[in-house]
Amino acid sequence: MNQKRIAIFGSTGSIGTQALDVIKANPDLFTAEILTAQSNDELLIKQALFFNPNIVVIGDEKKYQTVKTALSHTNVKVFAGEAAIAEVALIDCYDIMLAAIVGYAGLRPTLNAIELGKPIALANKETLVVAGDIVMRLAAEKRIPIIPVDSEHSAIFQCLVGEGRNKIEKIVLTASGGPFLGKKPNFLVNVKKDHALQHPNWSMGAKITIDSATLMNKGLEMIEAKWLFNLDAHQIQVVVHPQSIIHSLVMFNDGSIKAQMGLPDMKLPIQYALAFPQRIANDFPRYDFKKPSTLTFEEPDLKTFRNLALATDALYKGGNMPCILNAANEIAVFAFLRNRIGFLDMTEMVEQTMAKVSFIEQPTLQEYFDTDAEARDFAASLVHM
Ligand code: NAD
Ligand code: MG
Question: 342 is in which domain, residue-wise?
Fold first, then answer.
């Protein structure tokens, strides 16, 4: 395999740092060419000094001088600001973008990379939730692959390798159930952020950890799967599998089911996406069939975890509804993480915003941007933020 130059958007996050671990472990296969961060200047500088990228961008412009000064003795080009993060995606100096920014903020840089004709290793699911039709259409036009990093979607992608035109009957996304599996609303009403941030199987960024606790994450993943694999809503099912060993399944039209399994470790789907179509040997811990273990499956509790029901509604409704859902949810999670609202209020906020913002059946990109802004404003007005 030729050495691939990787542009990591969101290099200081949970996915970004694990991707750099993968690059560090495979220096003949990968180099880090672009690194971007929102506010963690200290870590960005450390990463730049170690990986010697072509370009770094710090989103927070107040931190430009600090980064610039720390890297003044190197050849690393330093930029700052939200616009710069999107603009550097248009500079032709990399082979693949790892889209690892969290939330709606990841959409524009990713669109720019596709515009430039660069393959995408996609962790940022919100990009597809917000504007999946436009993103996938542009990728098809440019003939570039969108390779999923999200573990469930990586599993499905891996199950589909070699299947050609064989028809999918349905896909089954597995959900760990999060830290509050089996709990009821009378418990959830009092849940505080520290408890919600304790995920049983995965260590991830704050936003996705809260989304995993509310099951919104699985809802976003249903919408992500629709676009990635060109499915109808009714072909997408969620099953709770608390052990997180089966990462997802595909059932074909003959009833045969393929599953992808392994210990939960995001480095695996990250390195798979970066090296695709090759696999890279590693020394990560292996699943051991000799150790006693049971794999279980159950239906999600949609009455308690209503976010998953709301996301399913948005999936079926289509148009700008997933965009509305996502924007309201980003505000809700932000407010919950600042102790401004309770755990169950997050769902209320999303539901009210979905009822309020005008529905558009086939939005343009600008209409998605406008919908996002309107939904954020409305959701924020509910907590007087
Ligand atoms: P994180 O919060 O740990 O990191 C987010 C990164 O994005 C950081 O580098 C941060 O600087 C940057 N960022 C944040 N806000 C930004 C903004 N407004 N503009 C530009 N950059 C910004 O998040 P994470 O857990 O690494 O998740 C990243 C994405 O990957 C999310 O979309 C998440 O859903 C998805 N994902 C994560 C995991 C996981 O294990 N962490 C698994 C599957 C999917
Ligand atoms: Mg996932």
Answer: 318-380
